[in-house]
Structure formats: structure tokens, C-alpha cells
Amino acid sequence: MSRVEEFAELRPLLFSIAYRILGSVGEAEDAVQEAWLRFEATPTRPRSTKSFLSAVVTRISIDVLRSARVQREAYVGPWFPEPLLADPYQDPARSAELADSVSTAALLLLERLSPLERAVFVLREVFDFGFPEVAAAVGRSEEACRQLAVRARRHMNAGRPRFEADRHERDELAARFFEALREGDVLGLQHLLAADVSMVGDGGGKAPQLARAVMGADKVARLLASVFPALARIGLTVEPHEINGQPGAILRDADAKVVQTLALDVLDGQIQSIRLVLNPDKLAHVGPVADAWEISRAFKESRRPPR
């Protein structure tokens, strides 16, 4: 097998490792590309290409994350990971765990870990790498990696998100939610939302966004029921789509350009949180991005009473 073929076979795994460490589709793709360049420049073939490339992409991702964390501290408003429409790495035996590990809630928990803890957790707990491979990847001893893994696991377990175990029931609930959303059905939405549901948006100061989180089933239901039917009247559509392994949707304008993504956390038969990503910098990989400010102006104009 040629180097190109070996790399192509491992590329889904490398991207999935990098994305979970970085929370950014663009940065993960850049890390994978840099890993290829280093692999291509290596004069001798490594004994294990998988171990070599996993170590390279992990080290690159750790370096990028250390820089990114400084930038995220100055981020305007809530910061969410870039929405991932589909995880390229699949393992049928561990599909549920992989989906949960890439959820927005899980990635936000990972943000609380140090870059080394995050990398060790991803390699060990998500992808089941042995400690010798983890140690080689992060440049620490096996014992140090075991300690990092214990600390990371403790932090993650303390706040680990739980999701609807029955994915069919979860998806059915999401379908009812989007139907009620289109109809502007306040009571229908209230029935599907947890009493303490929260709705939060990430615009990064580059798109109109909620001034603050909206809390409670009544407030969230009334806001959604008033806004989304009005958006539909100016040509926007809601396209249900899995976001980060959980139920969600892509909101598109009349030209099919991306306005925002919406992700749902579902537990105990109710929606616990709704997260919106509106920052255009985080949506470019989804498709051509709409002008959210122009849509906001059109939305406000459509709600003005006739003169």
C-alpha cells in the first residue's frame, strides 16, 4: 500500500481525533493536512503508520489548542464548537459512544480540561488507544498519562452529559419539535421542552444573537413560536439534520444559504437545551453563508405594522 493510500485510509480517524481536541472543523482539517506533509517528508516508513500519524496530529492539535484557548478567552459572547454534520470516523461497535463524545455538550466539557488532559482523554477514552501509544503521542511517560487520564475522566464524569438512550425515540421527539416550530405551536413546544430548558446562541459578535440565554419552557416556547414562523414568511427554511451526533437543523435563507445551525440535547423524553451557532466563521464548511444582518433587517421590517 502506498503512503497516499495509507493516509487516505486513516484520514477519517485523524480528523476525528483533531476535531475532538480542537472543536473546530477548519483547524482539524489543517492539522490533518500538516500531518500528511510531515508523513510525506519522513524518510523511512514508520513501523505503525496509525500510531505515527495519530501522534503527529495529536501534537499539532495540542499546539493549536494552546493558542486557540487564548483567543477564546476574548471571544464575544458564548463560545460553541463549530457544528459537525457528520463524523467521518465510524466504528459500529462503539457508535453510541463516538456520537456522544462529539456532542456539543461533551466538547464544552472538554474545554475545561488542559490541552494535555484533553488529548489523553480523547485518545484513551474515546478511541481506546493503549497507554504506550498515548504516551508516545503526547510526549509524556505512561504513568503521567495514566494520571492525566484519571483527572480528565473525573472532570468529565462530574459533568458528563446524558442523552436519550433510545435514538429512535429521540429522533421522533425532535421531529415533533420541528413540526411545532414550523406551526408556531406554543403549547406543543412547551410539552416537548424541559421546565428548565435553556436556549443560547453563539454569534461571536459577527451575527445578530440573543442578548442572553433564554431560560424556561414558557419563555423559550413563546420566543420560538413567534420567531420561526415569521422567518418562514421571509423565505427561511428549517432543514432537520444531525448536528454533532445529536438532533438538530440547518436554517437556510431563500437562496439555500446557511443562516445558522441548531442543536438539541434530549434527555428523559424532553429537550434540555437548544444551542444556536450563528457566527459565519463557524458555518463556512456547512455551505455558502447568508448575510445574517440583512436577514435580521428583513425580519424586523416584516413584523412592523402596516402604515
From TrEMBL:
Residues 107-156 form the RNA polymerase sigma factor 70 region 4 type domain. It comes from the Bacteria. Coiled coil: none annotated. Keywords: Sigma factor, Transcription, Transcription regulation. Interacts transiently with the RNA polymerase catalytic core formed by RpoA, RpoB, RpoC and RpoZ (2 alpha, 1 beta, 1 beta' and 1 omega subunit) to form the RNA polymerase holoenzyme that can initiate transcription. The keyword Transcription applies. InterPro entries: ECF_Sigma-70_Domain, NTF2-like_dom_sf, RNA_pol_sigma-70_dom, RNA_pol_sigma-70_ECF, RNA_pol_sigma70_r2, RNA_pol_sigma70_r4_t2, RNA_pol_sigma_r2, RNA_pol_sigma_r3/r4-like. This is RNA polymerase subunit sigma-24. Residues 8-69 form the RNA polymerase sigma-70 region domain. Belongs to the sigma-70 factor family. ECF subfamily. One of its GO terms (biological process) is DNA-templated transcription initiation. Gene3D superfamilies: 1.10.1740.10, 3.10.450.50, Winged helix-like DNA-binding domain superfamily/Winged helix DNA-binding domain (1.10.10.10). GO terms for molecular function: DNA binding; sigma factor activity.
